[in-house]
Amino acid sequence: MSFDRNLKIAPSILAGDFADFGREVRAMESQGADWIHVDVMDGHFVPNLTFGPPMVKALRPHVTTLMDVHLMIAPVDPYIEAFAEAAADRLTAHVEAGPHIHRTLQAIAAAGCKAGVAINPGTPMDAVAPVLDLVDLVCVMTVNPGFGGQSFIESRVPEIARLREMIGDRPVHIEIDGGVDSKTAGRCVAAGADVLVAGSAAFRGGSADAPEAYGKNIRAIRDAAAA
Ligand code: DX5
Ligand code: ZN
């Protein structure tokens, strides 16, 4: 099968109802989500805490698309096995999480998951160059990680274009995470992104009981990206 570079919208459950994640995921998928983005934070690598492998495992049966797990944790290696056992489809580790990102990505693949690498706004894009053959996705942070609802950092757009050139023909997705909405999506996709994570912009105005707003939000981002 050829590599799928069609646009994918990945709602981040960070913006959903923490007491009702299973229904939130099902609602999002019924409304057109392509992947489900799951933000794991440790209160150390980022100044916020979310949840760990047991939550990912509990969510697993609700996700029928792809469970895209963004690990904002350091260290990463001691937890890879637990997240793989929780049946995450992809584990994305930060290039800044240290100390050995190359080893971390190898370990993720060895545990049977797709491997992704994420990069913060303050890190030169060249930092991911040595690992592009070990991943199927680069997650370009367009906010500093830790919280939803932050403003998109505009200076990342030319960096996305640069990454697109660095990737060349490799089967590697470019995912954008942070401040993506119908105003910023178009510039990300024009620069070469094919996966858009959306937290606040995807969940705004809806709920698992009234999911139509989720569909409207996803369509608005998709339409803006195609324009
Ligand atoms: C930020 C997380 C994002 C976050 C995006 O640290 O990695 O996935 O949920 O939220 P919005 O779309 O609201 O910026
Ligand atoms: Zn994320």
From TrEMBL:
It comes from Histidinibacterium aquaticum. The active site is at D39, D177. It is an enzyme of class 5 (isomerase). GO terms for cellular component: cytoplasm. Catalyzes the reversible epimerization of D-ribulose 5-phosphate to D-xylulose 5-phosphate. This is Ribulose-phosphate 3-epimerase. InterPro entries: Aldolase_TIM, Ribul_P_3_epim, Ribul_P_3_epim-like, RibuloseP-bd_barrel. Substrate binds at S12, H70, G146, F147, G148, G149, D177, G178, G179, G199, S200. It catalyses: D-ribulose 5-phosphate = D-xylulose 5-phosphate. Belongs to the ribulose-phosphate 3-epimerase family. A divalent metal cation binds at H37, D39, H70, D177.
